[in-house]
Amino acid sequence: MPLMAETVPEAAPGLYLMTKDRGFTVHISASADHLQLVRDLAGKLLAEVGISDDTAENVQLVASELVGNAVRACGDLVPLVVEVEAAKLGVWVKVHDPDRHHLPRRSGVRTDDADAESGRGLPMVDYFAPGWDVALTPIGKQVRARLPYGEADHA
After folding, report:
1. Burial of 13 (0-12, 13-18, 19+ CB in 10 A)
2. DSSP state of 10
3. pLDDT tens-place string over residues 134-150
4. d(Cα 75, Cα 64) in Å, to the nearest integer?
5. Is the Cβ–Cβ distance between 102 and 121 less than 8 Å?
6. How far apart are CA 61 and CA 124, in angstroms?
7. Is the N or C terminus of the chain more exposed, i.e. has fewer CB atoms within 10 Å?
8. What is the rounded (10 degree) CA torsion for 64, 110, 90, 96?
9. Could you give the residue ranges of the DSSP H alpha helices within 1-155?
10. Global confidence as pTM
11. Distance CA 140, CA 120 (A)
């Protein structure tokens, strides 16, 4: 069964989904419901292509963090493009937002710092997707993270 078959319409208010062989691109207005949809789609896609539950959960965490950062930079209901693709060397998560000026920065906060009230998200992205980067685009920026496959993955 194709990724989006019966459960997700291709277009809905604030949402447009395009599927591809081993991934999807979804245009959303950022909201809790749309973030949950992205997480669900990623989980289903990755299960269909033989990716382990552990890797799928890590992809979902990274996607949530990158979408959350875009909302913090741009505000609620910001238009975003989220891509998830199981590629040759790992799973790509890409989040595109319209703000070229608020770039994510590695904070130096460790994920195990019990006194930190914020700043744990990007260190978590560093852990799961070392080498993530940001590309400026004509209409904003895209944060790109590749999560390597684990031993249990059958990509």
Report:
1. exposed
2. S
3. 999 999 999 999 999 98
4. 15
5. no
6. 9
7. N
8. 40
9. 32-48, 53-74, 121-128
10. 0.85
11. 24
Residue 58 tokens, joined: 């890590």
- Residue keyed to tokens 């590629």: 87
Contact yes or no for 3/21 (Cβ under 8 A)? no
For the chain, how big is the Rg over CA atoms in Å?
Answer: 15
Residue 49 near residue 150, CB atoms below 8 Å: no
Q: Tell me: pLDDT of 10 over 90.
A: no
Tens-digit pLDDT profile for residues 56-108: 999 999 999 999 999 988 999 999 999 999 999 999 999 999 999 988 876 55
Per-residue DSSP letter, 141: E
Residue 110 corresponds to which tokens in the numbers above? 């460790």
Cα(153)–Cα(44) distance, integer angstroms: 14
C-alpha to C-alpha distance for 35 and 122, rounded to whole angstroms: 18
CA-wise closest residue to 147 among 38, 66, 35: 66
Check residue 49 and report its DSSP letter: T
